[in-house]
Amino acid sequence: MLSMVASIVFGQLRVGTSGSFGATTNVPLVFNVNNVKSGSTGSSSDINVSFGYQALLSSSGANNTAMGYNALQANRNGNYNTATGCSALGCNRDGTGNTAHGMDALSVNVDGGYNSGFGNGALRYNTSGTHNSSLGYWALSNNTSGSYNTAVGFMAGATGSNLSNTTAIGRQAEATSSDQVRIGNNLVGSIGGYAAWSNISDGRIKRNIRADVPGLAFINRLQPVTYNLSFEAIDNLMYSEKQEINDNTFSKELDEREKGVRAAREKQIQTGFVAQDVEKTAKSIGYDFSGVDVDEIGVYSLRYSEFVVPLVKAVQELSAWNDKLQEQNDRMQEQINELKEEVDILKLSPRLSTSSEPITDMPRAILYQNAPNPFSERTVIKFELPDNTANVYIYVFNMQGTLVKQLPINANQSSITINGSELSAGMYLYSLIVNGQEIDTKRMILTR
Known about the structure:
The protein is α/β, with parallel strands linked by helices. Among the domains are: 207-242 and 252-310, Arc Repressor Mutant, subunit A (Orthogonal Bundle), CATH 1.10.10; 349-446, Immunoglobulin-like (Sandwich), CATH 2.60.40.1930. The chain is built from five helices and 27 strands.
């Protein structure tokens, strides 16, 4: 007989012969289990849809969707929320614009809004934080009140519960300070690509530009070192007080591969600087160096690219010094060439010779190079004279060939001292004269 009728109406419920059923008025179709709300189709006046025991149990909010046991169970005034999974957004009361997909995703959120949690336990302990995005098992689970955080990867997130504007990408990647980006965990040994990292450096956004970067004064004080990493120290320094995970499928113990990676990395010799030493060096010369980074929990990092700037300055300073030395070298070479010419002239000059005796008949005498040379205060000229030598002098000439000193020598002398205060700075020639004959001539340089 039922098949002969288009439909049967039980109060406000219509059951059609084709198997369809629904409400006859503008009220949602509600499912109960043991007299507990377990689903609602929503209606044009009640824009909430749920399915699951205690899902959206009691709500005056609108445009909410809950699928799963206790999903959005405590919602009161929250709107535009979507929860899929056991206890997803289960404690939400006034939070708006949240999306939770996965068991316990955003499960204790109370009034945080515009959060997205994808994965079991994603944003698990967030209560009031807003505008957070997490993708991955237990991603950003430690956050409670921080906002504008992003985490992608298994247990990626932040070490603190109230950090903001952090980004953590990769398995167990953890930001330790607000406004920080972290890529990968401490097992990662290489990060790269096919292009260098670019920093925005447009002059139009810079103010108070000053050319006051120290060069050699900073670089020469740095202490390059080699070292080995200690993963035990890293764990102690970076350890975050994460909420306990009730999941027997997850183990905090390292697997054999990870143990091997850590052991190999600890044996690897690293090259670099110690951040605290760099900071101390910069402060010692009054340099506010931007290459040292200290986060909110006191962990030191170095921005090695920042070292390029003082290194460039140091190279510029060395180049300037090199140019100056080259100029001095060129001037000295000119003086040497002039000196050679003067020596040749002096050797041919008759002014030193008052005797017609050939030099080959003279007793053997030796003149040595003065020391030190160049000199500024005094210099010593040594010589050797044969026995019974008489009429011995040291003549000193300037580069114009003018005799500026004539120093008599006793036969028992072997050296004389010339005081720099008695001459002007410059290049001089000195000759050993025995019996009117020039034995030898050498040059000396007086500096100031």
